[in-house]
UniProtKB/TrEMBL annotation:
<keyword id="KW-0472">Membrane</keyword>
<feature type="domain" description="Lipopolysaccharide assembly protein A">
    <location>
        <begin position="23"/>
        <end position="81"/>
    </location>
</feature>
<dbReference type="Pfam" id="PF06305">
    <property type="entry name" value="LapA_dom"/>
</dbReference>
<keyword id="KW-1003">Cell membrane</keyword>
<keyword id="KW-0812">Transmembrane</keyword>
<feature type="compositionally biased region" description="Polar residues">
    <location>
        <begin position="73"/>
        <end position="85"/>
    </location>
</feature>
<dbReference type="InterPro" id="IPR010445">
    <property type="entry name" value="LapA_dom"/>
</dbReference>
<protein>
    <recommendedName>
        <fullName>Lipopolysaccharide assembly protein A domain-containing protein</fullName>
    </recommendedName>
</protein>
<keyword id="KW-1133">Transmembrane helix</keyword>
<feature type="transmembrane region" description="Helical">
    <location>
        <begin position="43"/>
        <end position="62"/>
    </location>
</feature>
<dbReference type="GO" id="GO:0005886">
    <property type="term" value="C:plasma membrane"/>
</dbReference>
<feature type="region of interest" description="Disordered">
    <location>
        <begin position="65"/>
        <end position="111"/>
    </location>
</feature>
């Protein structure tokens, strides 16, 4: 359901950008660093929107991968900690059973 809402909002945003861009088709002077010229405002609006979308997508993918790596790292640390706790418990139980079997008061026939 949430995914459908996102798609709907994305579609509305794209339509708004297209409508605004094509309603402002007059030429404007553009000066960016050493680049200058007279171009339609439609071109400027659409190109800015496309570049913004691409950068936003890249940042979203980067953040989600970072979140996944962090989650995997935390899970790995939890697994290592549980393995340590398990080995400590096994060591305690095995050392307790060794002390029972190594009791000098017992004869080998009693076991």
């Amino acid at each position: 359901m949430l995914q459908k809402i996102r798609y709907f909002l994305f579609l509305v945003a794209v339509l708004v950008v297209i409508v605004v861009a094509f309603q402002n088709h007059h030429a404007v002077d553009i000066e960016i660093l050493t680049f200058s010229g007279r171009y339609p405002l439609t071109l400027l609006l659409l190109s800015t929107s496309v570049v913004s979308f691409i950068l936003g997508s890249i940042m979203t993918v980067w953040r989600s991968r970072k979140r996944e790596r962090t989650k995997a790292r935390q899970q790995s640390l939890k697994d290592q900690q549980s393995l340590k706790e398990t080995s400590v418990k096994e060591t305690k139980t095995s050392s307790a059973s060794r002390t029972d079997s190594a009791d000098p008061a017992r004869s080998p026939l009693e076991t």
